[in-house]
Every structure is written in C-alpha cells, then in structure tokens.
Amino acid sequence: MKKKKLVIFDTTLRDGEQCPGASMNKLEKLEIARQLALLGVDVIEAGFPVASPGDFDSVSQISREIKGVTIAGLARAVEKDIDMVAKATEKAEFSRIHVFLATSKTHRDFKLKKSKEEILEQAAKAVAYARRFCDDVEFSPEDASRTEPEFLRQVTLEVVKAGARTVNIPDTVGYAIPGQFGKLIRKVVDSIKNEDAVISVHCHNDLGLAVANSLAAVKAGARQVECTINGIGERAGNAALEEIVMAVRTRKDFFKADVGHIDAKRLLSCSRIVSNLTGLLVQRNKAIVGKNAFAHESGVHQDGLLKNVSTYEIINPTDVGWEKTNLVLGKHSGRHAFINRIEALGFRLDGEKLDHAFEEFKRLADVKKEIFDDDIISLVQGQFSEKTGLRYHLKKVKTTVETGVRPEATVELSDGNGLVKKATASGDGPIDSICQAIDKITGVSCKLLDYSVVSRTSGTDALGEVSVQIENEGRKVWGKFAGTNVVEASAQAYLNAVNKLIMYS
Ligand SMILES: [Zn+2]
C-alpha cells in the first residue's frame, strides 16, 4: 500500500497561544512561524484575526513574510470574521480560511440556541462565503466528539458540498477515547469517500489522550493532524507535534502515513524556542524533547545500550536534534563562526541585532570558557524582546546576602533616553529587594507570581535561565533571561517582564 502524506497543521500560534501565560509579541510569533516553516509543517495557523488588532497584525505580518507554507486564520461562521481572515492572509503565498461552528447538542442548545437545520445552513453558507476569497477552506464542527455521529456525518457532507477542502473533527473538550474516536473518524472518512476532501483531527489533552486520539484517527484514515509544539494549548493542551511526527515515523509499519516532509532534526530546537518565548517550561520526562527523554539511568539499560543501541532505544536521539557533540564556541571564535552557528540553528539576525548578539557573545565568552548551542539559543532569543524597543536597560545591580541581615539591593537602570536612575530597596530576599528597587525606578509596582531558575547547560559555569511571571493591574506577563550570574539574570528577567508591561500598555 502506498503511504499517504499526513498533513501537519500547526496551531502553536493560535490554540497554543491561548494557553494561560503564553502570550507572545509579534516578533516572537514571527520567529516561531519562521521556525515552523523550516521544520516543514504544511499549515501554520497564525491566529484568530477578529480577536484583536494585535492578532490581525500578526497574521498579516506572518502572511507577508513566511513563504512556502500555507498560512491559516481562524474565523467563526460569520461574514465579519471571514472577511478579516481573508484580509489578514491576502499577502500569503498560500492561504487558508478556517471556519468553525459548534455542532454538539450542548453547544446548540446552550451556547448558540440554534436547531440542527439552522446549524447546517449557517455552516454551508459560511463555507461558500469563504470560498469566494480562497480555494482552501477548512471547516471545524466544534465539539465534534460530543456531536451525534449521524448529525456530524450530515454536517461534514454538507460543508464539503459547499466547498470545504478539509473537515476537521475536533475533540474540543478532550472527551474522546482512542478506540471510540477512531471508529467515529472512520465513519466520517467513509461518509465523504466520493468527495475530494481531507479529514483532519484536533485533539485536546484533558484526559492525557490528545496524541493517542490523534493517532487512532490517523489509523482510521484522517489525513491531517492539528497539533502544537510541546503540546501547548488551552487547559491541558493539544496533541504534541513532536510526538505525533515521531510516532508515525517510528511506527511507519503500522500507520503507513508519510511525514517525510518534516525535518525531524529541528524538533528539539523548535521545542526550545517555543518554550523560551512562551515561558512554558518542558517537563524533564516529556517524550522526544524532554531533558530525560534519552537519558538511561539503570545499569542494565546502560549495559545493553553499550552492546547495541537498539536494545533500549527506539529513536536515535540525533534524529530529533539531540547532538552528541554539540559544537563548542569560545573566546577565540570570530564573528564568522558565530554567524555560521546561529544560522545552523535556524536563526537569522542582521544589522544592529547581530552586532548586539555578537557583543553579548563576547561578553559571555569572557566569563564562560565554552559556549554551547543552548547558550547561543538563549542569547539570540534575548534579541527578540530587544527588537521591540526596551524602555529600561539594566546598568548595574548589587545585592547583599548575610545570615540574620535583611537583604538590600541597589539597582541602576537607564531609560529610553539614556538617563541613568538609581534606587535602593530592601525586601524578604535578594531577589525581592532587586524587584522592589526596579519598581521604585519604573514606577510600575508588580507582583511576582512565579520565579524559577533552571540550568540550561552543564558545569558550574552553566547558564542559569531565569523565568518570572509578574502581574500588574490584572495583566500577567513573562520575562526570561539566561546568564552565568543568576542574580543579574533575575534582575534582567524581571526587567524584561516590566518592559513588556510598559510597552503593551
Ligand atoms: Zn483547540
């Protein structure tokens, strides 16, 4: 049997962005879109243009700048939303309008207050309207897994007849169970077998089954999977792209689906970039991209691996981007080597950003003997928040820690006009004192909701990556910074978050 291509539809920038605390700025979204295009996904769902002017701009910018991949925008089944998607994606090389309308009884009765007939009519009308702008229209019956199967079949047939090229069956509330969901998908696939349309799935992870349900659907004939990097998304998240791709690839004997267009070696860097830009850490035991995904502790396993890797390893870690010998740069590496390395990692920096990144690289090389890929990723990513024009820069931070003495910190910041301001504050700990001193200068008083430090590289001179989440008047933002000096990195991370608050207000 010939393998069928599985369309990978990434919704990190739409559904993924909806997860609490994951909001990104436009440049960060553009960078993720660029990385997704390099990874080789077929469709990037860039946003929900009607939701906010920021979302609209972001979808437009991605449509203008990211080529070679389909850019989709989400719309409710109403003309206004469809118009907005058509407009936002008009500069895309390939565009798709993704229309959704709820079909389950619960949603019909309580949310929409509409009969089955009205839903059928509205869905078909919206799809036909979207087709006026774009040949590539996708329809999603929201809450499909709780919709009466017969009605779902009817809706599917109706929207395909109205011009939908893809019908996506979402398990919106994460209610499905693989065996059952597979049967439902088979039924839907069979119902349109005479039509030229693709059946897709979009599964949520409320019961931890998003990937399992998606794979059951692939086995049952679905030809598109909607997923996100690291499985981020509403509530418990979506199906993880890296797990779907590697399951289909590793078990091609079983799935007989083709994901050869995905450059799996980029999975790890995509995962790191998304984690860095959203502030959502990847758990250590996460399949494929978690720190421990290929770590073998047990002596028996280690012994087996040394004799033959296939004893305990079903995936070669290098196939998904874990390099055995990650190239090391150092103090004597020149600008050329630095540029080569960042390009190999998939980044593109030019002009001032590149100068700035190289300066920081040199500064880091002075205090850290070996610079690993992870260090470079952290360093380059620092440039994305910089790009948006930081209001305050950290000039100096000093803090004292002594048993029995209340900690105190002195901070110097320069504002957008280069004016240096200084403040001293004391707090419950050194970090608290630093935050308070920064607040004194900026005049924005923030509550620290979350603070974590993880080591990004190995050794005692490793980069500590500090993530903070702060709140001011109900708005929550993330800030991140990596550096060998954890105290300074904490001040930088906090300041990054404060700058975001100021810039977006
Ligand atoms: Zn969703």
Structure commentary:
With 505 residues, the protein is α/β, with parallel strands linked by helices. The chain folds into 4 domains: 4-278, Aldolase class I (TIM Barrel); 295-322, no CATH class; 329-387; 393-504, Alpha-isopropylmalate synthase LeuA, regulatory domain (Double Stranded RNA Binding Domain, 2-Layer Sandwich), CATH 3.30.160.270. 41% of the residues lie in helices and 22% in strands. It has 17 helices and 18 strands. It has helices at residues 26-39, 53-65, 79-88, 105-112, 116-131, 149-162, 178-191, 210-219, 241-250, 252-255, 267-278, 299-307, 335-344, 351-367, 373-387, 430-442, 486-504; strands at 4-5, 7-10, 43-47, 70-76, 94-102, 137-142, 166-171, 198-203, 224-227, 257-258, 329-330, 370-371, 393-402, 405-414, 420-426, 447-455, 464-472, 475-483. The strands form 5 sheets. It has an 8-stranded parallel β-barrel with strand order 2-3-4-5-6-7-8-9, surrounded by 9 helices. Strands 13-14-15 form a 3-stranded antiparallel beta sheet. Helix 2 (53-65) crosses helix 3 (79-88), helix 6 (149-162) crosses helix 7 (178-191) and helix 14 (351-367) crosses helix 15 (373-387). The chain is globular and about 75 Å long. The N and C termini lie far apart (57 Å).
